[in-house]
Amino acid sequence: MFIIARFVLNREYLAVGFDMDSTLLDTNVNYRKLSLVVYNEMIKVGVPENILGKTAGSIYNMSKGSEYLTKNGRTDDIRVVKDNVREMMMSVELENVMTSKPYKGAEEMLTYLKNKGYKIGVLTRGSRQYAVKALTVSGVIDMLDALVCRDDFDEDESKPSPIAMKHFADALDLEPKDILYLGDDAIDFFCARDSGAGFIGVLTMNTKEEWKMIDDRIPVIDTVTELLKIM
């Protein structure tokens, strides 16, 4: 077995994991709409507008809203919000799912990894119904050894929680330290870092400068297909 990305923590890995949207697949999810789903439901249960961010992401609004409700002894309302947004968020994810496609060279890269004996999989904050559809439309789902999604477990155990990576490692019958994970967002990095997995940032969303602001030690590549160049 080859050593992937020797420069990443100077470790050898047994598996390569990928975030899905904007990392392995080019998708067209309306994240602004996703954020408003959470924002609006938090407002409905009485979370003040100044606690939330109308232009912030869904993760931010869920976190800030939940924090406010917890401090005010209203944990039951957190479950109400989560139950209410589950189907609505999945509906938004599915709106443009048929346009999903792998980034150029991604299929060849996955084939190469499989042929070299690596386990490969996807760890995503997308819903399972959406992820299965997107990966199927893209023609890569049968190449995966594992798929872990937002609604497979409690949402608190999704990225950026390191528990998400533990679930992913369990699905691969490995430990997080055996996994090299690639993602385009800070939550991907925090999930990998805090679980002990290796990490490479992808420049499909964040710039090199933005990755440096998160942690200047993060190795970055333009797209996931550049893995072939550093092996």
What does this structure look like?
- The protein contains nine helices and eight strands.
- The chain folds into two domains: 15-28 and 100-230, Rossmann fold; 31-94.
- Helices cover 43% and strands 12% of the residues.
- The radius of gyration is 18 Å and the shape is globular.
- Helix 1 packs antiparallel against helix 3 (75-94) and helix 6 (162-172) packs across helix 7.
- The strands form two sheets. The protein has a six-stranded parallel β-sheet with strand order 5-4-1-6-7-8. Strands 2-3 form a two-stranded antiparallel sheet.
- The longest helix is centred in the middle third of the chain and has 20 residues, at 75-94.
- Residues 1-7 have low confidence and may be disordered.
- The N and C termini lie close together (11 Å).
- By secondary structure, the chain is of the alpha/beta class.
Helix and strand content put the structural class at alpha/beta
What count of helical segments does DSSP give? 9
CATH class of the largest domain reads Alpha Beta
Q: How would you spell out the order of helices and strands? A: EEHHHEHEHEHEHEHEH
Alpha carbon gap, first and last residue: 11 Å
> Which band does the percent of strand residues land in?
5-15%
| Share of helix, binned | 40-55%
* CATH second-level architecture of the largest domain: 3-Layer(aba) Sandwich
**Number of domain units:** 2
Instruction: Indicate the CATH topology of the largest domain.
Output: Rossmann fold
Shape: globular
The count of β-strands is 8
Query: Which spans have pLDDT < 50 for at least 5 consecutive residues?
Result: 1-7
**CATH level-four homologous superfamily name of the largest domain:** HAD superfamily/HAD-like
Nearest-integer average pLDDT? 92
Strand order of the largest sheet: 5-4-1-6-7-8
Rg from Cα:
18 Å
